[in-house]
Amino acid sequence: MSREDPRRALPSVDRLLDSEAAAVWGERWGRERLLAALREALSRTRSRLTTEGAGALDPAGAVLALAREILEAGDRPSLEHVLNATGVVLHTNLGRAPLADAAARAAEEAALGYSNLEFDLGTGTRGSRYDHCADLLRELTGAEAALVVNNNAAAVALVVNGLALGREVVVSRGELVEIGGSFRVPEIVERSGARLREVGTTNRTREADYRDAIGPETGLLLKVHPSNYRVEGFVESVALESLVALGREAGVPVAHDLGSGLLRPDLLPDLPSEPAPADSVRAGADVVTWSGDKLLGGPQAGLLVGRAAVLERLRRNPLLRAFRVDKATLAALEATLRLYRDPARASAEIPALRMLAEDASSVRDRADHALRELETPPGVTVQIRDMPSVAGGGSFPGVEISSAGWEVRGVDATELDAACRHGRPPLVGRIHEGAFLLDFRTLLPGEETLARERLMAALGRVVGER
After folding, report:
1. CATH class of residue range 101-349
2. Which of 61, 170, 187, 429 has a beta carbon 3.0–4.6 Å from 438's, enabling a disulfide?
3. CATH 3.40.640.10 occupies which residues in the chain?
4. pLDDT tens digits, residue range 7-25?
5. Is 0.85 surpassed by the pTM of this model?
């Protein structure tokens, strides 16, 4: 190492520990965390000097500044609030449906203290957590019984294991979907202890295909709504009513997995028809399953409704304990379901429904209002433009919703995207044709100002580093 090597100017850990800043930080974060941060900062700064040289760098100041960043980063939760400007309403990577205020308050209240989760206040004896949302689900779907587990994949697994363990589950080849995260229906069926029996073809399945497959080993007829993709053209499928009639004739239960599950289709009249749980119940399905954090707009959960005898059988399944839902989720779900008793209130207070139903002109107005106070560096332009939003979460595949937002040009879109994601709170947009886009449909009320501030800070950082 030569005498001119800039790394020689780096201070020792002991010298850094003697600094005034380190003394304050030691009281706040403790000596062990402080030492680890200083060593990490020294290592990173040494690597930077190796590749970039010293320049105008103040070695001690740079190390201390980086150490503080490391210490503060360690205090931030790994799960943090994000400004979603992607235009994807039910963005799985960003937590899907944001909760209604009433649901968030209910979850907080349940989490902060004790509750009657499994205690019957009337009799003073042990109760069941599965009773808390059952009445509301029965009321809203017309089903005889209801059950809640921790997600829809668990709901399907419970149905398959509880009704067809060691036997065959008959599914159309056109409905062997892959759920988010590479979880596939065939794998769920097999891992749940049943054997998959495929019928029909990818695009055409007839009633005769099901009839020919039913035999002594048949434990379940499973119909899966292909909510995350769409097949067009020369297609044919079997209506649920026909499948139910066939199941009754053969003495085989029928399950309908709705995936997204739109509880009240009338709340989204401008979007394509989506099967509702109540429709499946009226069609006679023995059990119907769907997600709580998609079109319902509630917390992550798997919802099951159907015939009382079938649901009671599932409640006795030992796997239910592995799939059981916690008290905060039940509280949030119950509050969400209560909103559906008043459709107007559900539309106004459930964020996912409100976002999906908002008119594009309203979204544009919000983007225009926020743009008035936006300040940009020289050479950078931000304009309002039309752009497509999507429902996401495997809902309304192929359907684009007219929306509006900001198009940012004059700066490297990839660098700006990274800078926005590293802000607090992070701002997540999307890159399209070399521009950075922020779709205002998926910004919650009041987040427009935060989004503007994050963008301005990110632009200052990117332009300042040129």
Report:
1. alpha beta
2. 429
3. 101-349
4. 677 888 888 888 889 899 9
5. yes
